[in-house]
Task: structure prediction
Amino acid sequence: MARTRFYKDVIPSVPKQGVLRRPPRVKLSAEARKILKIRRKTTAMSYQEDLDNAWGEIERMKDQLAMKYSKSRLRVGMDLHGGRGSLTKGRRNKTSAWNAFVWKMRQNAGESAPRGRGALADITQNHEFRQQYEATSPEERESYVKELERHKATNAKAQRVSTRSKTNDVIHTVAVIEDELVNLGLRTGVESMLVVVKGTTNMTTKPRMFTTERIENFLAGTLKIDPGEFVTRMEGCALGGLKGAANHKNRLSSARSTLREIINTKLVEISGDTTASMKWTHYWRDIVVKHRVIVVGWPDDIPFGNLSDVVKTLSDYESLTRKWQSGKISFKALTEQEFTEMDEDRQHRIDNGEIDIPLPRKTRSDKGKQRVGSSEGGGRPQKRKGAKSREHVRSDSDSAQGEESGGERNGDGGDCGGSLATARDIVAGPSSSSNGVAGL
Result:
C-alpha cells in the first residue's frame, strides 16, 4: 500500500529576490528619437482629449439624471463622484525586507557608512552586499523588519521640541488641509471653515483661519462677527479657558493703549512738541505736514491705519510693540527737499486717482445762524441748576417778630436789636428785603 503524502508535510520554498538586472540600453538615431517624441506627444494629446470627452459625458449624465429623478445637479454630483483627497487615500505601508536589511546595515556601519545622495545607489549596486542579503535567514529578515517598523513608529510619534519646527509643522500641515478643503468643496459642494490657534504660550504661531466664500459672508453679514475678532477670542479661550476669552478684549485694549503711548512718546521726542499725538485718519496733514516726520519700517502684512481698525490679534499688537521699542519701526525727520518731493508725488497720485483724500468733517446744520439761548428770543429757556426752595424755612412767629423789630433795626435802635440783626446776617448772608431783615 502506497503512502499518502499530505501538503502539510511539504516545506514551501522561500521566494528569493533576484539580482537587479538592467535591460540593455539601445542607442537610437536622431530620426528615431524624433519619431518617438512625436508619438508621445500625439498619445498625450489623444489621452487628454478622451479625458475631456469623458468629463463632458459625465456632465451630460448629471443633467439627465437630475431631470429624470427631479434632483439637483449638486446632489447628483455628490452621489456620482467617488474621488477622495490624498489625506484619505489608503497608503501601502508594508515594510520591505530589503529596505529593512539596508537600514540595519546602515545602522551597524555608523559613521563609516557612505553619506549623501549617492549612498543608496552605491549600496544597491554592490554585488557583495546583495549576496550578503541573500545569505540572510528568513528569521533575521523578519527581525530586521520588526525593528524598522518600531523605529518608524517612534519617529512618527516623536514630539517636536524646537519652536521653529513646531511653527513650520503647523504652517505646512494647515496649508495641506486648506488645499484638501478646497478640493473637497469642488468635488462635493460643501462649505467649510478651519480655525487653528495655539493652545500654549510656548509657541509663536499666529492664528490661522480658512473659510469658503459663503461661510465668510455668513459670519460678516448674518452674525455680524469680524473673523479677526472671532479668531482672537478663540485663541484667548484656548489659552486661558472661558475666563481668558472674557478678558481677551481687555487684554487687546491694554495692548492697544500701550502701543499708542509708545508711538506718541516717539513722536514727541522727534518733533519736540509736547502736545503732539499720532493721527491716523489725517496722517498727512497732522503728522507729515505739521511736524515734517514720517513712519518708516511699518510691516507689509499689517495695513497702515488706525490700530482699532487694522489690528485684530494680540500677537500683532505684541509684534508692533516690540518693533517700535527696538527701533525697527520709527519716525524719520524730513528735509524740506524730501517733503517737497513727497508732496508733489502725493499730488500726482491724487490726480491719477490712486489715493483718496480724507473727506472733511461734516459741518453743523445751523452753521452761520445765531443760536438763541433765552425764552425771549424764541428758543428754549435755560434749565435752572440751583435749588428750587429755600434752605431754611422761617415760622410765622419769627416773621411777626421780625416785622415788629424792623423799625428799631432800621433806625437808631438799641444794642439788642442791632446785635440780633448782625447775628442773623452772619448766618443767612445779605438780605434783599426792603425792611432790612436777613432772609433765611
Q: What stands out?
A: DSSP finds 16 helices and four strands in the chain.
